[in-house]
Amino acid sequence: MEVVIAPADELARLAADAVEGLLRADPETVLGLATGSSPLAVYDELARRHKDGLSFARARAFMLDEYVGLSADHPERYRNVIEKEIASRVDLAPGAVQGPDGLAEDLPAACAAYEQAIADAGGVDLQILGIGTDGHIAFNEPGSSLASRTRIKTLTKQTREDNARFFGGSVEQVPRHCLTQGLATIMSARHLVLLATGRAKAEAVHQLVEGPVSAMWPATIMQLHPHATVLVDDAAASRL
Ligand code: GLP
Predict the structure, then answer these.
(1) Best of 40, 128, 131, 201 to mutate for ligand 1, by most ligand atoms within 8 A of CB?
(2) Which tens digits make up the pLDDT trace of 186-212?
(3) For the chain, what is the domain count?
(4) Which atom of ligand 1 is nearest to the CA of 65?
(5) For residue 124, is it within any domain?
(6) Where is the active site (predicted)?
(7) Cα gap 69→101, rounded to integer Å
(8) What is the CA(37)–ligand 1 centre distance, in A?
(9) Which of 12, 45, 171, 190 is most buried, by the most CB atoms less than 10 A from its CB?
(10) pLDDT in tens, 107-154
């Protein structure tokens, strides 16, 4: 696992460099997109590079996770967040971004279909990741099976509190369930690029880099990945 400690703007450029390198080598690159605040600077940088000629027209993208039950037009529905933060700012083709369907009537079937869609696309080339304060990646909360695939999960109190800021500060407005790629799904991407900034992430980053591989700190599974890059600022790295 490669760990880079640098200022936040430099981290965003490094992640964008990895995406750009892949797109230039293979315009049909399959990207893995994350929500949350951590990747936003990367998306800003990619939008800038798109203006300078970087094309996503033949690329495809898969989202990590989705809330269950948020209405199709809810601004915090992850599909809408990804559309706003990145897809609409570059030239990804309509339909090129897929995500788990949190409004499906048959949620287990939607999860299985999503796994199949990722496999049919040949897998994810580069997966962008953030990390929760409790060490979750995507919505794989502590205790998640290290062998898990896309499935329904119950959000922890901690994550619902962390994410309440996106729902007008009200924990009650945060959905209780989500669909998320599993840890094994994420591990099958060919390159993992995780970004973390700020002191609130310091313990999770400490566990990720230096802790034992454990389902109690789900991100630690990344230690077993052959090509994982961890991009952190000084504050997030303060416990290393
Ligand atoms: C959410 C998302 C994760 C994200 C995490 C951290 O729970 N499902 O994919 O990594 O939050 O978010 P942030 O980057 O805003 O700290």
Answers:
(1) 131
(2) 999 999 999 999 999 999 999 999 999
(3) 1
(4) 8
(5) yes
(6) 65 (proton acceptor), 134 (for ring-opening step), 136 (proton acceptor), 141 (for ring-opening step)
(7) 9
(8) 7
(9) 12
(10) 999 999 999 999 999 999 999 999 999 999 999 999 999 999 999 999
Helix axis angle, 8-25 to 40-51, nearest 10°: 50
User: Which residue's CA lies nearest to atom 3 of ligand 1?
Assistant: 138
In a domain, 51, yes or no: yes
Cβ atoms of residues 146 and 184 within 8 Å: yes
Number of the ligand 1 atom closest to the C-alpha atom of 139: 8
Q: Over the stretch 79-116, which tens digit does the pLDDT of each residue have?
A: 999 999 999 999 999 999 999 999 999 999 999 999 99
**Active-site residue identified among 45, 115, 136, 233:** 136
Residue 61 domain boundaries? 2-232
At residue 198, the pLDDT reads 98
Give the pair of three-digit tokens for residue 27. Answer: 């315009």
**239 within some domain:** no
Return the CATH number at 159.
3.40.50.1360
Give the dihedral sign, CA 65/70/85/27: positive
The answer to the question of residue 237 being in a domain is no
User: By the 8 A CB rule, do 227 and 191 touch?
Assistant: yes
The pTM of the full predicted model, rounded to 2 decimals, is 0.97
